[in-house]
Design a protein that fits this description.
By secondary structure, the protein is α/β, with parallel strands linked by helices. The protein has a single domain, classed as Rossmann fold (3-Layer(aba) Sandwich), CATH 3.40.50. 29% of the residues lie in helices and 23% in strands. It contains seven helices and twelve strands. It has helices at 15-37, 48-57, 62-65, 89-98, 117-132, 189-193, 208-216; strands at residues 4-12, 40-44, 71-75, 77-79, 108-109, 144-147, 172-177, 182-187, 198-202, 236-241, 252-254, 257-264. The strands form two sheets. A nine-stranded mixed sheet has the order 5-3-2-6-9-10-1-12-11, covered by helices on one side. Strands 4-8-7 form a three-stranded antiparallel sheet. Strand 7 (172-177) and strand 8 (182-187) form a beta hairpin. Helix 1 (15-37) crosses helix 2 (48-57). The N and C termini lie close together (7 Å). The mean pLDDT is 94.
Amino acid sequence: MPGITIADYLVYDTPERVAQAAAEVFAKYAVDAANERGVARIAISGGSTPKRMFALLAAEPFLSQVPWSKLFLYWVDERCVGPEDAESNYRMTREELLSKVPLPAENIFRMEGELPPEEAASRYEAVLRNSFKLEGAQGPAFDLVLLGMGDDGHTASLFPNTAAIDELGRLVVANHVPQKDTWRITLTWPVINHGRRVVFLIEGAAKAERLHEVLLGGYDPERLPSQLIRPQSGKLGLLLDADAARRLPKVGRHGDAETGTLELTR
């Protein structure tokens, strides 16, 4: 049967160039959404690439490009720790970005990791319903969702063989992760797939085999939750460094980046 396009990817020489490309994507979709709908709603993740991206966004030229007063910032997931904890995704974002840019405090929607997990998830679902003005079974449509992928194939806090993988009705869940003996708060995969644009930021040789398996291997989302991410709006985007992309086909160049498109033919 004809191939179905599932992902476009750009491959850069270094993690620093991945972060630069991610900052460009962030700024572009923030500007486009603000111009088209008056507000830009972006969901972010933690990790080393977002950290580098945040540092870039807090400096010129991005500092002047991003329409901060029209940006609403959300989180894809959070560890069940307080906002001052070293493990907090919010804390990292605050230190690298929020403390340096004119983003109004009322436009920042953090997950309250210090609360009991189920309460934190319920409260964040209410935050999404209120800020997006959702009714009934409506889901939020983020203008951009930025994701990472772990060495085990997880994304957000959707870890292999955990309960959150099977959740279809809720927007946000508390997910117990036995592998790490901890709880996480996470958006559910149908919410992520409802985003207008979804982009993975992935780097490092340790992820090369898993990324190849996620994109080109057999479909097994219980073991490889990143396979659940297939945006309803169209193609998935991936920004990769050369180490992470070494098992993917290279088909061309665009500017300073290798480019490729992957299709699902089964």
